[in-house]
Amino acid sequence: MQDLLTDPWFYTACIPAVLLVGLSKGGLGGATALIGVPMMTLVLAPVQAAAIMLPILILMDMVSLWTWRGYRHTQTLFYMLPGAMVGIAIGWWLAAAVSTDMVKLIIGLIAALFAGRWFWLKLRKASPEKPPSRARGAFWGMVSGYTSFVAHAGGPPFQMYALPLGLHPRTYTGTSVIYFAIVNAVKVLPYFLLGEFSAQNLAASAVLMPFAPLATLAGAWLVKRMKPEVFYPFTYTMVAIVAAKLIHDGVSALLT
To answer: φ and ψ at 68, to 5 degrees?
Structure first.
């Protein structure tokens, strides 16, 4: 670890990764969050990168909870969080049995169809919005909890349920902040039991943590100034970028 912390390439890859994830945590779309961990894998093993990022994510969650206090859609949280807990448990149980690359590919394909449907409906000038649904919330919550545990990629499944609700951008972002703060906190125990929180990984997390609050606050500052007619096209575009990234990573890894 001493060699890692004195390696300039560690900072070259990991500091931008933390900044990108922080912007996303502040509310600026999900694409930057999914770019963050793959960027860290340029200098770290994938599992180590995810373990180092989790404490940083929790710090970002704390900043986001303060920044977005008072904004939430309680019904969405009520419908999605029970499913998310089930998804985390499944991810813990199947941690060694299911390829992370396969999970990325599946998420990417679903997210691509999701974003493509939104843009198609917009071209046809039809409404992409859907009413709240307990069944859909539980299903996408479970998928989000699972993918968040295995790949820190819970954003697209969450968006697949929450974006079509047509919430105000501040309400949507505040809801996502509460949701992922709870999900990340629950992930701590399974990660610990899997042996991922070594002293070495925690030391790397501590070195990167000072960059987290600044990026999170910057993301929140931008989102609070976005109008809905700008926020939703931007966010769906981010979903499409995420989908392309996940499909590329999944296919590339499975073909090698």
So the answer is: -105, 20
